[in-house]
């Protein structure tokens, strides 16, 4: 899923622990895997070397294509952090810290996957294996409508979740 949806979901679950930054971070981190378990699409990345048969063998190449991808992913990430900030504004500093940590942790497994690609060593191997094992096998790549619908649903569900637990 997009980093935007992951950041919003991470922030939403962090509202469960507004006074506990460590727990907020952990909740956000775990929310990533939960969200990836739903079938979803991906935006195309130019530097990605796909390996459909064995996803652990995927990689990304350095170069201009990677720089372009980095801008794309950076914009996605910043949009997520901005939305998390706007949607779940907490009344105090510790609450806000928890929410932003949740948002950050919600996106973290994806950059950690990138670290795995580049280092191919533990603990990143195990983390990436877990990431891939829990991710939905069906994907909506190439189906823009379904991809967008899943992303919007994830964001709306996150907002509703945070609203429900604030009652
Ligand atoms: Zn992921």
Features:
single chain, 167 residues, mainly alpha, 7 helices, 2 strands, 66% helix, binds zinc ion
Shape: globular
What fraction of the residues are assigned to beta strands by DSSP?
Answer: under 5%
Class derived from helix and strand content: mainly alpha
Main sheet makeup: 2 strands, antiparallel
> What is the count of β-strands?
2
Runs in which pLDDT lies below 50 for 5 or more consecutive residues are: none
Tell me the number of helical segments per DSSP (H or I, 4 or more residues long).
Answer: 7
In whole angstroms, how far apart are the ends? Answer: 28 Å
- The tally of domains stands at 1
Bound molecules: zinc ion
**H/E element order:** HHEEHHHHH
Calculate the mean pLDDT score and round it: 94
Q: Mind telling me the C-alpha Rg? A: 16 Å
Helix fraction bin: 55-70%
Query: How would you write the strand order of the largest sheet?
Result: 1-2
What would you say this structure looks like, in words?
The chain has one domain. Helix content is 66%, strand content 2%. It contains seven helices and two strands. The longest helix is centred in the middle third of the chain and has 24 residues, at 64-87. The two termini are 28 Å apart. The model has no long low-confidence stretch (mean pLDDT 94). The protein binds zinc ion. Residues 32, 36, 109-110, 131 line the site of zinc ion.
């Amino acid at each position: 899923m997009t980093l935007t949806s992951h950041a919003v979901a991470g922030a939403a679950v962090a509202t469960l622990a507004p006074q506990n930054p460590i727990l907020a971070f952990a909740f956000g981190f775990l929310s990533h895997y939960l969200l990836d378990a739903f079938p979803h699409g991906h935006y195309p990345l130019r530097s990605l070397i796909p390996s459909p048969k064995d996803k652990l063998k995927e990689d990304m190449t350095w170069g201009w294509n990677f720089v372009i991808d980095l801008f794309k992913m950076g914009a996605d990430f910043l949009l997520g952090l901005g939305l998390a900030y706007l949607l779940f504004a907490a009344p105090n500093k510790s609450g806000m810290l928890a929410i932003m940590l949740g948002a950050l942790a919600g996106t973290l497994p994806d950059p950690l996957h990138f670290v795995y690609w580049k280092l191919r060593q533990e603990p990143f191997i195990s983390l990436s294996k877990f990431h891939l094992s829990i991710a939905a096998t069906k994907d909506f790549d190439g189906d823009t409508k379904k991809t967008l619908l899943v992303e919007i649903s994830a964001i709306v569900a996150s907002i509703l979740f945070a609203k429900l637990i604030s009652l």
